[in-house]
Amino acid sequence: MRDKKRFLTVLLSIMCMLSLILTSFSITAVSSADDISGDDGTVEGTDDEDDEEDGDDEDADDDFGGIDTVMNFVASKIGKKAVTLKWDKVSDIDGYTVEYKAASASKWSDKDVAAAKNSVKITGLKIGTRYNFRIRAYIHYEEDLDDEEDEEDEEEEEFIDDIIEEDEEDEEEDEGEEDFPEYEYGEYSKMTLTTLKKDGSGVKKAVSNTYEKKATGVKTSKLSSLKSTKKGTVELSWKKNAKATGYEIYMSNKKSSGYKKVATIKNNNTVKHIKKKLKSGEKFFFKIRAYVVKKKVKTFTKYSAVKSITVK
Questions:
Q1: What per-residue confidence (pLDDT) applies to 23?
Q2: How far apart (Å, rounded) are the C-alpha atoms in residues 213 and 190?
Q3: Sign, Cα dihedral of 103, 188, 303, 229
């Protein structure tokens, strides 16, 4: 064990800056050389990149298991002083946060919406005024700090506790600053609209950056099979969709959420794809959908049923 005087000097030098919990973690790091890092889980903004080239999006794997972006966020009815907003439901969440402000303003107002709902009416707006709206799903949780105790350093922690008791007032103040309960957020869906004028004129509907127009007259493509014949790879196959322009493949490590697009197939004659660089022994879920491009307008079919496989 390190010299106690040296250990005490290090401890007292950081007591005024760190909370009780973070102090314990920092001292454990000094004694065990472990690197402990935190993550507030907050994600803001959306990914505005268009389709990738055919093949894997190799960086997508790191994002699996997160909260889905709210899709098809629209203003289904715009009035003089109110708007009605709708969106597709997101699975495995605790609720939605809808935020809005006049385009010229700096401060956002917000409204919490239960996970079971997928619409809300925003009132109290100004006539003929341009507004920005955004929505994101969230999960509400409390961190269980007891699970993060380092049992191997119990003897040193007892010594630390004796020192900490001498400064109880500072500890209580620091504890009050802990960010609990915590929230994890998905990405924003964003939309801009203008409320109707006094005479009722103006655009009565608006769509967001996550709005996807549905393809008509095109059947949903279905995954025929998943195979893992080589280490770290999965081969997907499906039937050709004659009326489609191409296909999009999505993957997650959860069945009902966390899907990320991992490949865009731009030739409807292609009916196979190999997803590489997966972790052996892990289970992944896949789904596919077709898309159609006509007159530079891109529309989408519904997603296929989900299929799963454990990687070889």
A1: 45
A2: 16
A3: positive
